Amino acid sequence: MANVTVIGAQWGDEGKGKIVDWLSERADVVARFQGGHNAGHTLVVGEKVYKLSLLPSGIVRGTLSVIGNGVVLDPWHFRDEVAKLKGQGVEITPENLQIAETCPLILPFHRDLDGLREDASGAGKIGTTRRGIGPAYEDKVGRRAIRVCDLAHLDDLDLQIDRLTAHHDALRAGFGEAPIDRAQLMADLTEIAAFILPFVKPVWLTLNKAKSEGKRILFEGAQGTLLDIDHGTYPFVTSSNTVAGTAASGTGLGPNGAGFVLGIVKAYTTRVGSGPFPTEQENDVGQRLGERGHEFGTVTGRKRRCGWFDAVLVRQSVAVSGVTGIALTKLDVLDGFEELKICVGYKIGDQSFDYLPAHAQDQAKAEPIYESIAGWSETTAGARSWAELPAQAIKYIRRIEELIGCPVTLVSTSPERDDTILVRDPFAD
Predict the structure, then answer these.
(1) What superkingdom heads the lineage (predicted)?
(2) 265-422: CATH number
(3) 4-100+200-257 sits in which CATH class?
């Protein structure tokens, strides 16, 4: 059976939650492979709205859901998110939710450091969610992280805490903060361990067994390709690799397990927080897109910046993530625009570019080269077939396909899961 990897192909917030939910009904396993609870996925199922930030979206459907080793896990947030979803009637047990033994933990001092750094950065702020994601990843690659498996061996943690405090106490002193309270840290870990440990499994074994049995695995990415630590608009990026290739390293399944790579793309462009955004519209157009698209972050509630569709950036995302097909979301937000614009290149000084250069200063100076296309007055909201779309909307979609060099696999026309036009089934063998 085919596997599917779902990633964001812009700056996140593309509507991945709905698409993953839509696909998870036919998946046997849903796996998160990177990021932390800085990701936000909103699922609309009938009259209920579920807001997830750490748990895989498949859990709402009762699909076996796993949190891979590439995720950094805040155990207290995990406990609270489980409780919130249970309160909405979602059944969550160790039988349908697993956490990789090797996930690094986000600890209270990671959150402290995240906020202290951001506050001290002045104009250099990068827009962190202040949830400790970056500092936790730093400790992972610095080989001093406390991992999920350590919760079963708290009596043997002294040497690891020595390494942690040697690093963090010096940083905290620089900010005028007291050293880490080791006794309190141990008490906190002891308190949360009993809740976390029943969910802990060797997830790589679970996934490899599922693969050998021909089961369908759905890999769920967080954030977007343009926020990738290597391939995004650095330094205004997240702290993990968000590209599709990370599905392998972030779960332990292997690089041949990713299957069909589905890139989620809005019919326009949005971004949360700081960083370059060549097609941003700080005018009535941007206001209209934001209001019609309800553009506020699921996790932070921050207002998203809005602008025209940037085909150059999506083409880059398609290339670096090996996208097989895209899911075009929020097409209905463009209903009623007399004219639409698509970015087809950039001008930086007297030079033209068909890609976004890597340096932040060049990115900040990039001026979009636009192609105009007529809009449509009819509604696309709720359309479930090509026949229900205005001819001009279809023309817009076809032009996007040409410019990004990738076919549209499905089109989403509202937050409702069934308001979807399927062109090609990603799970098809």
Answers:
(1) Bacteria
(2) 3.90.170.10
(3) alpha beta
Active-site annotation holds for 140 = yes
Residue 37 among the catalytic residues: no
What is the spatial distance between Cα 15 and Cα 25, in angstroms, rounded to a whole number? 17
Q: Is 125 annotated as a binding residue?
A: no
Domain spanning 108-196, CATH class: mainly alpha
Domain residue spans of the chain: 4-100+200-257, 108-196, 265-422
- The reported pLDDT for the residue numbered 44 is 78
Single pTM value for the model: 0.93
Question: 37, 77, 110, 140: which is the annotated catalytic residue?
Answer: 140
Please tell me the predicted confidence (pLDDT) of residue 238.
92
Q: Is 425 within any annotated ligand binding site?
A: no
Q: Which of 21, 37, 41, 77 is catalytic?
A: 41
pLDDT of the residue at 1: 52
Residue 164 has, within 13 A of its CA and on its CB side, a CA count of 27
List the chain residues with pLDDT less than 70.
1, 123-127, 297-301, 429
256 marked ligand binding residue: no
Here the tokens at position 350 are 């007297």
Q: Binding site annotation covers 332? A: yes
